[in-house]
Amino acid sequence: MISGSAARNAGRGLSEALTVSCTPGLASTWLCPRIERFREICPDVALSVVTPRRLDDVSNPDVDLFLTFGTGNLPEMEVEPLKAVEFTPLCSPALLNRLGGLVEPKDVLRAGLLHLHDRDDWRKWFRLAGLDEGGAEQGMLFADMNLVYAAAMHSQGIAMGDEFICHGAMEAGALVRPFDLAIRSPRACFLVVPPEKTGNPAVSAFRSWLVEELPAEKA
């Protein structure tokens, strides 16, 4: 309670500019639906949210704070781990009903696989499930995670999804998890601040707000 109160009061009177770079999936499904809470704490901060070309890109000199997905190996930056990530098959209830349910892991082949960039995540999941990895070669490739989730929610196939990012869609019933099997990603979500930006009071306020938001989401 003390920490939350401090975070809420820390932004009063701030009139700094703050540019946040956030991965597209995290921005659209987690950050944007909650950003008004930060605006309530720091109403006078001139906030800009941009998305990078790569999920781990921290090269934009105009950005004050990065929310990345990667290994966190950035020795010249201040790096704080935010969330470990697990991937598991996610699909729409309509697709599940149309297929008559997905009883065994091999049944995902009947659903049509949806891939982001490459097929590595599905290969790892097939390996974990004891299936032939060759089955992961089928399905559609997408360049952006938002496209993968849009296709999944519209019953176009089954995605290898992150429950953290998809929490809202799962809570609303737009996506369901047919199996308990999940793979731990070697990458994670990190908060990254360039050393020359650490003196920006708005960066400290955003960091405090973000850390306060995350435990509520885990609960």
Task: Characterise this structure.
The protein is about 35% helix and about 25% strand. With about 220 residues, it is α/β, with parallel strands linked by helices. It has 2 domains: about 1-85 and about 185-219, Periplasmic binding protein-like II (D-Maltodextrin-Binding Protein, domain 2, 3-Layer(aba) Sandwich); about 85-185, 3-Layer(aba) Sandwich (D-Maltodextrin-Binding Protein, domain 2). An 8-stranded mixed β-sheet has the order 2-1-3-8-4-7-5-6, sandwiched between helices. Strand 5, helix 6 and strand 6 form a beta-alpha-beta unit. Helix 1 (about 1-10) runs antiparallel to helix 9 (about 200-219). The longest helix is centred in the last third of the chain and has 18 residues, at about 200-219. The model is unreliable at about 5-10 (pLDDT under 50).
